[in-house]
Design brief:
2 domains; two-stranded antiparallel ribbon; 4 strands
């Protein structure tokens, strides 16, 4: 068979189809070629067949772009959340405030696209910031779409949080080196563009 992306689902597992027992494994760009193997209907879940199946799954998971990017996202989020704790803001909240500050006329749809986030998730994240008085939702020019407005309290919260953010940023950039980090951000932007499509 030809190669498939690692995002393709593994379409069968031991015991799922006792008569055919086909298993698909993928590793996309990391190099694991998709292969299909036949599982005997007599193979035990605890036998050699199951062990091989688990090894193949582990290889596919380790090479999965989605899995690895999510791990990176969680690790980086934890780093920034810990640094920002004294400010009373989480990293996601500061990013929203900063995004509104640099795009002050944005409505929810525009901000969601900028942040690569669906509108319903953004709405949930906006709610506590509005309740704290850091943001306001106002009617847009068309009278329908809500415009997100940064309040004076929101600006003060940004100013208070930025030193903690800068410390986390300095730590992370220092681990890579400035040039390496710059190239990393360029590559991440390319991944986002490719994943979102035209």
């Amino acid at each position: 068979m030809g190669e498939r992306s690692c995002g393709e689902r593994i379409r069968a597992s031991p015991g799922r189809d006792a008569s055919a027992g086909k298993r698909w494994f993928a590793r996309g760009q990391a190099g694991l070629v998709v292969r299909m193997s036949e599982q005997s209907d007599t193979t035990s879940q605890n036998g050699d067949g199951a062990g091989e199946w688990q090894r193949e799954l582990a290889a596919a998971l380790d090479s999965c772009a989605c899995f690895n990017f999510r791990k990176v996202s969680r690790a980086v989020t934890q780093l920034y959340d810990e640094a920002l704790h004294p400010s009373g803001l989480r990293s996601t909240q500061l990013v929203i405030l900063l995004s509104v500050a640099v795009q002050p006329t944005a409505n929810i749809s525009q901000l969601a696209r900028r942040m690569v986030m669906d509108a319903s998730t953004l709405n949930r994240n906006l709610r506590p910031l509005v309740q704290k008085g850091l943001l306001q939702l106002a009617a847009g020019e068309d009278g329908r779409r809500k415009q997100i407005v940064l309040t004076d309290e929101g600006k003060a919260a940004i100013n208070a949080a930025v030193p903690y953010w800068a410390a986390a940023q300095k730590r992370l950039v220092g681990l890579f080196g400035r040039q390496r980090y710059k190239e990393l951000t360029r590559q991440m932007s390319s991944v986002i563009s490719l994943a979102r499509g035209p």
